[in-house]
Structures
1.
Amino acid sequence: MNFYSTNSPSVHVPFKEAVFNSLPQDRGLYMPVSIPQLDADFIQNIAKYSLPEIAFKVAKTLLTDAIPETDLKAIIDDAINFAAPVVKLEENIYVLELFHGPSLAFKDFGARFMSRVMSYFLKDGEKMLDVLVATSGDTGGAVALGFLGVPNTRVTILYPKGKVSPIQELQLTTNGKNIRAVEVDGTFDDCQALVKQAFTDNELNAQFRLTSANSINIARLIPQTFYYFNAYAQLLREGKTDVTFSVPSGNFGNIGAGLLAWKLGLPVKQFIAATNANDTVPAFLRSGVYEPKPSVQTLSNAMDVGNPSNWVRIDEMFKGDMAELKKLITGVSYTDDQTVKALEDAFTAYNYIECPHTAIAWRALKDWKAQHPEDKSAGVFLATAHPCKFPEVFNAEMESKIVVPEQVKELEGKLHVVAALGSDFAGFKWYLMNNA
Ligand SMILES: *Cc1c(COP(=O)(O)O)cnc(C)c1O
């Protein structure tokens, strides 16, 4: 399977090139040249398979000829080594828990798969790979832990100063080895702009072998399809065949992967794109006008994205068929007050604690169900992070009930290293050139 840039559909590159370039020079995003349908037999019998088996089948469909099967299987077994359970909370309301990986967020799926693919393609003696990643919180931790200790790689993480939670900051700044953290005096969009500009800077490209680990990398998107199929498998075991997914969305990689899964043949009745005040996509679905805006800071900070990078991929999958897109995707946005109310309501209803991103998806699903009383599909909202990463949003009672995993407690005693920069490109470039 080859990949094309959304800005130059006629130019095709192999998977390896798409992974290492990440962002094509024409500033499009890579997409598979064709999206084959998984065989109907596999989908019907999917309940028989485990998550790694499903992942292998899906990956094979997109990556035949890029990575031989035995190697692909080894990569998947190493990367996808934690569970993604679907938990029933009430009739037709389920939570898909994606926070059981090392950084406690769904981004572990993408980051772990991508780092192992890159390391597989990196041969001895090749120039060191410099991964640049902008994070609004969760990407950085997942990427850092995904690449930590991987030979011949170095990761530079940029995050907006004062806009990530204490646990996230610990996950970014305590790694050492081949991981370094930079706090930028600005927003996530500023961090992303710095990374994007670095990729088009001739001098930096001459000196370093740069690559991105953001959700724009195609090797992050593909593994995120796995858990949609695996969720469907779990629901089939409960006799459910119709499913609606509610996805907390920021850069739209997660829901983009869900739509890719749908294109690959996963039967999905409805997707709900649930956002915070950064409502560029819900506004577009209402008005038909796509108007990126500067991001605003919210309690669900991993979704503070005013111009979601992955939207072009979704647009591409529908080839401008606005009617079909609007039929399959509902967009909805919530304020911070509604977010806090939602996580408190969910706690009251189920004694279940949701992170603020997850709470938005839960509320969106509940509201959609209330508006569609005839709908009998299994509603699944995606829990994208463990609540312990966002302690500041919870009241004292809830906070006391959050069980903090061991791996987080250990970070507190570790050395904390970070470089502080402004949001200007000249300063970032200087830092890269002088800290080689
Ligand atoms: C990154 C992130 C999101 C947003 O995911 P996108 O793929 O950028 O839409 C939602 N919730 C959490 C916890 C995240 O870390």
2.
Amino acid sequence: MKVPLLDLKAQYQSIKSEIRPCIDEICESQYFILGPHVEQMEAKLAAYCNVPYAVGVSSGTDALLIALMAAGIGPGDRVITSPYTFFATAGAIARLGAVPVFVDIEPTTYNLDVHGLAETLEKMNAGRRATVKAVIPVHLYGQCAEMGLLMDICRRYRLTVIEDAAQAIGAEYQGQRAGTMGDLGCFSFFPSKNLGAFGDAGLVTAQSKELDDRLRMLRVHGMEPKYYHQIIGGNFRIDALQAAVVAIKLDHLDEWTSGRRQNAATYRQLFKAAGLEDRVILPAEVQSRHIYNQFVVRVSGQRDGLKDFLGQQGVGTEVYYPVPLHLQACFADLGYGRGDFPEAERAAEETLALPIYPELTQEQLSYVVDCITAFFDR
Ligand SMILES: *Cc1c(COP(=O)(O)O)cnc(C)c1O
């Protein structure tokens, strides 16, 4: 049996009849960048997330970059984030000449450890602490970080909070949606994300009109009115085609999220029935609505062996992420070393993402767990 990590073809077949006429309409109009489809998508996404402002942009990476620019982050500033995330989270900070400061993760959720955040801020001398301007919590794998405590800490130190919700659209923390608790929220519609476009696309959510105005200006080279540049922005525009696809797919997102959550529940039953609980640590579900962008298990010692074995059995898996950011070659000059963030390092060695996409069948889920049982029985 084949169980790919992700199969987008099945999803496309189910929505093809809605998408094709809309793509045709845009082709007939020859209106490809920004415009009414983008405005519609922004309004729909703002309503879905329950946030006052939403600005469509060119990718999740650009969402982070433009959010940091809107927050006024620049050379010499420090921004605190997780060392265990996709590169873009810290890359965006460094691209603006600011310094990423890492705080280790919690071992159960893989999200930023807020107690570690408080400790890091307390231990800094006043001069250095004054250079810390923002915090980027990442809602990794589709589960919100501990935002209550995080917001308290950030308000106390007057830090801007930019949520990296690239993996977490629709996830909730105590009833609040990802990307709506901080000052700004960043989303990715990369095709493999749980809400994916037909190419690169992203979104920034904002709590204030000032931030929304600034994001819209930055998106078009800081231009307002045409050819008059108030600030230095960039080309962070989103295509009408991408916006239309995202808007159509949004109508199905809750149903897909239910499918992912149901698959996670089925995995839990199957792992329990197989008696694998000691060998495979399943993802902790501590916040109210984990949307399982990924279903990531932890396997001590034998992760790579299991990954190879599953590959031979036709089961697709992935390691998110094999090298924590503080050990990446490009960040060597930040001065971090092995041992600085033990939980991030251990996660990088032990975690493995299993197929979780909504169209998976019961037989496929059983097959995955049977293969894992076979691996440990060898
Ligand atoms: C995917 C992702 C991004 C970047 O999004 P792109 O659309 O690929 O640029 C940023 N942060 C996290 C946590 C991601 O998973």
3.
Amino acid sequence: MSSSVANTYNRNPITFESGEGIFLFTESGERYYDLASGIAVNAVGHSNKYLIDKLTEQAKKLWHVSNLYRIPEQELLAERLTNLTFADKVFFCNSGAEAVEVSIKAARKYHFSLGNKNKTRIITFEGAFHGRTLGTISAANNPNHLEGFGIPLEGFDNIPIHNIKLVNETINETTAAILIEPIQGEGGIRTIDTGFLKELRKITEKNNLLLILDEVQCGMGRTGKLFAHEWADIKPDIMAAAKGIGGGFPMGACLMTEKASNGLIPGTHGSTFGGNPLGMAVGNAVLDIIQENNFLEKVNTNSTLFHKNLKIICKNYPEVISNIRGKGLMIGLECNIKNTILSDELFKNKILSVGAGENVLRLLPPLTISEKEILEITNIISKCCENIKNKK
Ligand SMILES: *Cc1c(COP(=O)(O)O)cnc(C)c1O
């Protein structure tokens, strides 16, 4: 494709002109079910009227002032997020990678400010994805993402998941924190056992380490709780959020307990755009919707139906789909064929999906997906599996 855009993506050559709810439309009016949601971003669907109104209202008043001044919309969203979670403090930024970066910096600075200057190392896990900055690729340690970019950033101990003994063996006097996604997204919708998360919480408490969760993909209602760690009934010290939190407006946030945020005094970290009035107006609007009565309840009942129907498909077409992974509307289809064969077939039948590690295909619909849409979609997926089976 001849384009002046940098060549970093393998793009599907299709273009979309508009969207509405779960649907995307091409210029010629072809309609697609969007089960990619811009990679778990369009949490409340495309062209959400309430979001448009709130964005437009703010756009007419004030877009940006920088963090040299107080920003009431930012203070409001921070207060709401802290009221709803373990956190006492929120730092706003513009993306998931930035939210993870400040999480790492906060953890190191916390120990530094207590005089523990050597406590800088962070334990991370194989299969993780934390973003594409030098810090976050070093944390995740995926060789495909590191290759050619020089010496990885020092200070990460990357180990396999679900091995508590190894976690204990890896901890030493230089360890500052443990960083983990409660459900690995890019890695292949690998759900971390709640028992393992609980153990990590215990170990970090025992060893005076901070527990950092990366909920950039699994947070903001995606699993049927506001944040996925609530299923494990644990509280982290620091958490990175992004993707769904802006409903399509680029936004990230690092949530921290008072204690964990102690090192981040004025001048230690910053962002020009983070938390600007325009972004915050949208962030508050997304939260208005997710906090509505029954919103998360509906995510839970609808996703239960979705999983149930997908399990039936899996049973009928084991040669195509061998297992269903994930929680809520963060769904992984474990493929018995190459996952691109299934995504291509779904695409031909006007369903958008996203690939992931371990030959998994991700379904990440807007959280506003309806029962009717789930039934339509699972019918199409079933038909796609039949087509693939017949071609085999
Ligand atoms: C997408 C993602 C990131 C990175 O977010 P960006 O906005 O692309 O920087 C970090 N962590 C997880 C778990 C993600 O899914």
